[in-house]
Amino acid sequence: MTRNIVIIGGGISGLSVAYRLEKLFASDPPNITLLEKSSAIGGKIRTSSFLGHQIDEAADAFLTRVPWGLDLCSELGIAADYISPASSKAYVVVNGSLRQLPLGLVLGVPTKFLSLLKSRIVSPLSAIRAGLDRIKPDDWPGHDETVGELIRRRLGPEIAEKLVDPLIGSINAGDTDLLDLGLVAPQLEAAARNNKSLINGLRNQAAQGGDKASPVFCSFPEGMSYLTNTLRSQLKHTDVQTNIEVTSVLNHAKGLKVSAQGIPDTLADAVVIATPANVSCKFFDSTPSVISLLQQIEFSSVALITIGYRRSDILNPLNGSGMLVPRSEGLLMTACSWASSKWPHWVDDNHVVFRVSVGRYGDNRFNAYDDSSLVRHVADELKNLLEIEGEFIESRISRWPNSFPQYKRGHETLVDSIDTQIKTDLPGVFLTGSSYRGLGIPACIRQGNEAARAVTDYLRQ
Ligand SMILES: Cc1cc2nc3c(=O)[nH]c(=O)nc-3n(C[C@H](O)[C@H](O)[C@H](O)COP(=O)(O)OP(=O)(O)OC[C@H]3O[C@@H](n4cnc5c(N)ncnc54)[C@H](O)[C@@H]3O)c2cc1C
Questions:
Q1: What CATH number is given to the structural domain containing 137?
Q2: Helices 12-24 and 441-460, interaxial angle, to 10°?
Q3: 59 Cβ below 6 A of ligand 1
Q4: CB-count exposure of residue 247 (10 Å: 0-12, 13-18, 19+)
Q5: For ligand 1, is residue 12 a contact (CB within 6 Å)?
Q6: Is residue 170 within 6 Å of ligand 1 at its C-beta?
Q7: Which of 281, 268, 275 is nearest to 428 (CA)?
Q8: Ligand 1 geometric centre to CA of 286 (Å)
Q9: What's the rounded Cα separation, in Å, for the pair 361 and 165?
Q10: Is any ligand 1 atom within 6 A of the Cβ of residue 245?
Q11: Which of 36, 95, 118, 388 has its CB surrounded by the most CB atoms within 10 Å?
């Protein structure tokens, strides 16, 4: 009997589901339909031309310290095409000036005392306070913590606010005082649980740890869309339909009914929903318990401003990959990637390109600016920090409303409840994607693989 599977959403999560389903059903392919609202696949992976280079409008790299991204690239035959950042140096803004991040930083946690002291990012007293972590007794409170709680407890508030929040907060567009330690920084949690000292725990991890020479992140000369485009091009049995906005998913006498604008209803034996939770909850009119759980996941909004200058107009040597901005600086920008220094393929004798992020949880000020005043404001901030003498010559704004799910304390329990509720109310429906169990690209691929396996098990029951 032919089975019909519908996948909703053509970002990296939905595409990974389709790819894995094709592999799992290799000898007996079902009908797989992928419905995508926009005119292109990729979702938050989007690359477009800027000053003659292919430059990403959101994600520009993926983590290589977890296997799922690398494994998929190997399967797709594109592992040889990787590139990695040209520089590992980075900076943080302190009182309006740049300070180089100290050596031995792990997710913002300094593990080398002298390097921290020399960096002048925190006061000498705060550096000493942080160093005391190595001799202080274990003071774990006995319950799950937020990132901020751990760092404030072991290393003090200045390390939390000037190093850890700018780094982990900017990866998640979040507030580390609210983010779940185990979900957003499992490496820090493991170090703190296995040692009474967080710094010693991180040093032990480094001493035992893997391949230090290999890059932490990688990308492609064509930008990250190369991954999603290759993935799509290798789908053999999936009918990918773009410009189709799904409106509801309902139980039906013959399985599940998927309704979308502009096409007849589709009946399916299984449906994988790979849209963000704040979108997915709108599909379930008849199941209020699922809706109310999904609505508990909060999101933050960001915009990414790509801005180009003549190289001769920038006095700063841009010797690094970029800079982070603590909340206390009061700037609109939260981070700035010195894209043409970071990525070897964007290096260009004539131009400099920056990718500036604005917006994070609790800071939506950028939404009050229209595009031209947002670029103007960001350009003024850059001018002061990087000694820029001329005007920018090209700019592009990519707005990403509600793009970063906030993994607050208790998120994992909430997601478990959502899974349980959906199994009861809508058997055959599976949720996947960045809202649930990891928001980086490799984690989305992993969840896509898991959703495909869950569908396979369900249909083979
Ligand atoms: C600015 C920014 C920078 C980032 N940088 C990085 C990075 O450097 N590295 C990294 O690993 N991660 C990064 N991330 C995170 C990562 O890109 C995302 O978490 C991931 O791409 C999400 O993939 P997804 O498939 O789960 O969701 P999405 O990419 O959101 O895909 C969902 C898809 O569903 C479609 N859709 C929505 N509504 C409907 C509907 N009603 N019907 C049909 N289709 C619908 C959307 O159009 C979209 O294509 C970044 C994210 C942002 C926003």
A1: 1.10.3110.10
A2: 40
A3: yes
A4: exposed
A5: yes
A6: no
A7: 268
A8: 26
A9: 12
A10: yes
A11: 36
Q: Which residue out of 275, 415, 430 has the highest number of ligand 1 atoms within 8 Å of its CB and is therefore the one to mutate? A: 275
pLDDT at 158 over 90: yes
Angle between helices 67-76 and 225-233 (to 10 degrees): 50
433 in a domain, yes or no?
A: yes
Question: Is pLDDT at 211 greater than 70 in this prediction?
Answer: no
Q: What is the CATH number of the domain that holds 312?
A: 3.90.660.20
The per-residue pLDDT for range 49-100, each reduced to its tens digit, is: 999 999 999 999 999 989 999 999 999 999 999 999 988 899 999 999 999 9
Report which ligand 1 atom has the smallest distance to the Cα of 433.
26
What separation in Å is there between the alpha carbon of 11 and the centre of ligand 1?
6
Ligand 1 touching residue 57 (CB < 6 A)? no
Query: Could you tell me if residue 136 is inside a domain?
Result: yes
Distance of alpha carbon 401 from alpha carbon 398, whole angstroms: 10
Residue linked to tokens 């035992």:
208
Same domain, residue pair 417 and 293: yes
Whole-model pTM: value is 0.96
Inter-residue contact 328 to 161 (CB < 8 Å) = yes
Whole-angstrom distance, CA of residue 234 vs CA of residue 217: 24
| Residue-number span of the structural domain to which 23 is assigned | 4-41+224-297+407-460
- Is the distance from the beta carbon of residue 155 to the nearest atom of ligand 1 less than 6 Å? no
Summarize pLDDT for 427-456 with one digit per residue, the tens. 999 999 999 999 999 999 999 999 999 999
